[in-house]
Structures are given as C-alpha cells and as structure tokens.
Amino acid sequence: MHRGVGLAAAERKRHIALQYQQTGSALANSHVQQLSTQLSTFHAALTLFARNHARQIKANPAFRAAFFDMCSAINVDPLASTSISSRSLWSQFHVDDFYRELAVCIVETCYQSRGQNGGLIKLDSLAAIISKRHLKTGGHKVSQDDILRAVKTLKPLGSGFDLVQFGDCKFIRSVPKELNLDQSTALEAAQIMGFITQSMLTDNLHWDTSRAAAVLEDLLSAAFVWVDEQAAQVEYWIPSTVL
C-alpha cells in the first residue's frame, strides 16, 4: 500500500512538473512572438517615417541624428542591408548616397591633408572643412556624427580610417598604423598646450630620457607632430591644433 501511494505521488509530481514546463514554453513562445510582431511594426513605422521625411533627414544634421537614435532604440541600422531585400533602409529611398558621397569626401580630404597632419585630423575640423565645401556647392551641412557614421562604412574596406581619442579631443586617423600606449599618452598630454617637449614627458610622466626621446622620434617620423627648434627647448606640435 505504501509503495503504491509513493509511486502515485511521484507520478503526480512528474505530471505537474511537465505541465509547468509546457506552460512556461508556451508563455515564452508567446512572448517571443509578441516581441517579433512589435519589432516588425516598429520597423514598418521607421520605413514609413524615412519615406515621408527623407528630404529632412538628408538636409538636417540634428533631424538625421534623431532618426538614427530612433533606429538604435530597436536595434536597426539604416545603413546595413536587410536579409529580406539585401538593401539598406535608406537605399530604398535613395538617401544612402549621402553617406557614400560623404565617405568619399572624407577620404579625399584626409589624403589631401595627410602631408600636413600625418593622417591625424581633429573630428570637428574635418566636419567643418567638409561642411564648408558642401555648402559652397549647394550641398548639406554635415555633423561630427555624420562623419563617424561615414567612417564606419569604410571599415569593411580595410581602409585604415578610424576614430581615436586623446583626452577630450577626437581625431580621425587615416593611416593604418596603430599607435602604441606611449604614443597615445604623449599625444594626449600634448592636448593641454598643443605641443609636447621631452622634459614635459620626463617631469610629468616620470619617463626616463631615452623613453621620451624614442616616443617623440616615432611620432615625428610618422608625421603626427611638427618640430619647432626655435624655442628654448625643442617643441613637438600637433599639426591639427595649429592649422
């Protein structure tokens, strides 16, 4: 008798556990389906929004940034291709040409100024230069956010273009050479006055003379800094801070 009661109780427990499992799976599947439906609805709404406001998105940097923020909220990249159509959200309305053209303009501008700045140009300066050029030809003003998004589209090409930051100052690097930690630290220190000296590195960072000299020589050979030998002590200036 006791054995039979124990077996029946165990069977009931297994049955209840199975019911819980089935109910949980059904709820999870329902939740996933609801999320999928909501995301599809949001994506359709974004597509409609892009269609109705394509001109404003292309012409107004602030409006364009707000549109991208809406896309990011539901994990949609307007510049990426979709699995359904193999076309980006913007390409469906011929708006993605803006970023392709901007990317080409960034490459041209960086290459033209590479002899002056060694391939390291301040982000705000680059945006100002390209905006001025666009406005002269009847184009649209571009923002720093636009520059960053356009640079992102260049990465799959292995172009070497990337964003680097020293302190609070952001630069676009157009050369594939990676900066090591010492070089990055020296350039960050140079943001304070626009230049760096060997003694500034040894006194403030407590580097030995050979380490400081080697870093400055590397930056100079890569054209990331210019030399002013007329000062009391040789100064190494960042070109983008004085141009």
UniProtKB/TrEMBL annotation:
It is found in: Cytoplasm; Endosome membrane. It is a peripheral membrane protein. It comes from the Eukaryota. GO terms for cellular component: ESCRT II complex; nuclear body. Its main location: cytoplasm. The keyword Membrane applies. It holds the Pfam family EAP30. InterPro entries: ESCRT-2_cplx_Snf8, Snf8/Vps36, WH-like_DNA-bd_sf, WH_DNA-bd_sf. GO terms for biological process: ATP export; karyogamy involved in conjugation with cellular fusion; negative regulation of transcription by RNA polymerase II; protein targeting to vacuole; protein transport to vacuole involved in ubiquitin-dependent protein catabolic process via the multivesicular body sorting pathway. Keywords: Cytoplasm, Endosome, Membrane, Protein transport, Transport. Belongs to the SNF8 family. This is Vacuolar-sorting protein SNF8. It comes from Neolecta irregularis (strain DAH-3).
